[in-house]
Amino acid sequence: MNSSQPIEIEYPQPRVHDDSFFSILKRSPVYSTFGEAQAIESASTSDKITYTYNTPHFSENEENETPTHGQLTPINPFLPDRPREIVGDRFIPNRKSSRLSLALSCAHELESLIEVPKKANDATCEESGINVAGVYSAQVLGINSSATRKASNVYKNCNLFQYRESLLKNELDFNSSRRSATVFEADDFCQLNQKKTRKIPKVPYKVLDAPALQDDFYLNLIDWSSQNILAVGLSSCVYLWSAVSSKVTKLCDLGNNDTVTSVAWAPRGSFLSVGTNSGEVQIWDAVKLKKIRVLNGHGARVGTLAWNSAILASGSRDKSILYRDVRTMQNFTSKLSGHKQEVCGLKWSFDEQQLCSGGNDNKILIWSLQSSHPLLRFSNHTAAVKAIAWSPHQHGLLASGGGTADRTIRFWNTLLNQQVDCIDTGSQVCNLMFSRNVNELVSTHGYSLNQIIVWKYPSLERIVNLTGHTYRVLYLAMSPDGQTIVTGAGDETLRFWNVFPVQRNGVDDIDYESKLIPSRMDIR
Questions:
Q1: Close Cβ partners of 68 (under 8 Å, ≥ 6 residues apart)
Q2: How far apart are alpha carbons 184 and 188 in whole angstroms?
Q3: Which H or E element spans position 324?
Q4: Residue 234 three-state SS
Q5: What gap in Å lies between CA 118 and CA 452, rounded to an integer?
Q6: How many other CB atoms sit within 10 Å of the CB of residue 450?
Q7: How many Å separate Cα 400 from the centre of its chain?
Q8: Which of 14, 17, 242, 383 is buried most, with the most CB atoms less than 10 Å from its CB?
Q9: Does 8 or 465 have the greater pLDDT score?
Q10: What is the pLDDT averaged over residues 451-464?
Q11: Which of the pair, 496 or 171, is modelled with greater confidence?
């Protein structure tokens, strides 16, 4: 539609047509706004009076020319010299005066030009002398408020959504002073709001006496169940300690002719496997305090046990590893031979597909559940390998620790069959365990420091060193919530440490497991 053409607007004809009506109509605010109004009474046969509004006219060459006001003048459609115009139902403005390009270019103008009205809460900040906006700009964004105000006085044509690789000079000054003119220093104010760093207590919150706890590097005598029950092998007996009620229950006594060499809970925490010095593996019901089965097959002491759902793997001094399916009547379903000396460490991967074994022959072997031959073999350690741990955060990541002559913790990628990292701890590595809540691991040590170290992975930064045991820290177990560890040593004490934080999702659930930790039932 041409902007110079008039637009007709039809109004119903008033019932009274006298001079007083038109005199009132001339003084109407609508007419005084758009210009002088003139009303002409239509013929008697006409039912409507038609008013024509002349839209503003702009020059094509002068975009900023001030438009002339439109004039609203009535016309008679029946006059011969004025043809009847098409009646329009709405007004379509001419947007030449809007200057949208200029308006959009100001979208990126600095916010300092806009004065935000103060809220009621701002008064409290002003009374205390704290300029929160200034502190945030200086500490977090690194903006110098004085430089920003100077730059805001100059108009900059910044196109909307335009990418700028570098900010304009003097707009952001990251090298300027970061001190804010407040009652106290802005740095101190920000430190109050910073996230608190985790502090690990360097003293145990509980110490239990464990008389007759053997000082033997090749044994595994403590384990913590998913039902929050700690099993401890003391000489020929196995005791159960409830972390909820602190009640101690005697589970079994092997007599004077035998001793306990290893204990391991089934995944659901109802059944406990006990390895003996005679080579037997006993299955006990911890609820009924009753022995269920006795599994034979080894010719020497059973120093390590590891559960995989209903499959129990046992490692012995006779250099062999036996797979035992507790759902069958057989003593064992498969026998693995690969180590040349005593098997002192066994751990299943969290996907339950691979078994890692460490031996006194300084070797690490990776086994498959379906094969009796090792898949991988690592021989970088120079001492016995008892400490073994799979990472619950990265598939195929394995950590292993060597004995007194080795003193290193090595990390392996079992998917690529290569060593990832290595760190010298300075002392015998007795146990390793990854945290399920954070990507950290804990190691216990023997000769000569007898300490407990929490490491951050993959940086291998020492977070804390815990001391207190006077003998080698040979035994390690973790609570089902992943926050507490218990350590045992030849000083016949069990010490409980709060080491790891709560789960990342903030839910305190003892059944929480990592993405790589399976949730299968042990016995069906």
A1: 56, 57
A2: 7
A3: strand 320-325
A4: strand
A5: 55
A6: 22
A7: 27
A8: 383
A9: 465
A10: 96
A11: 496
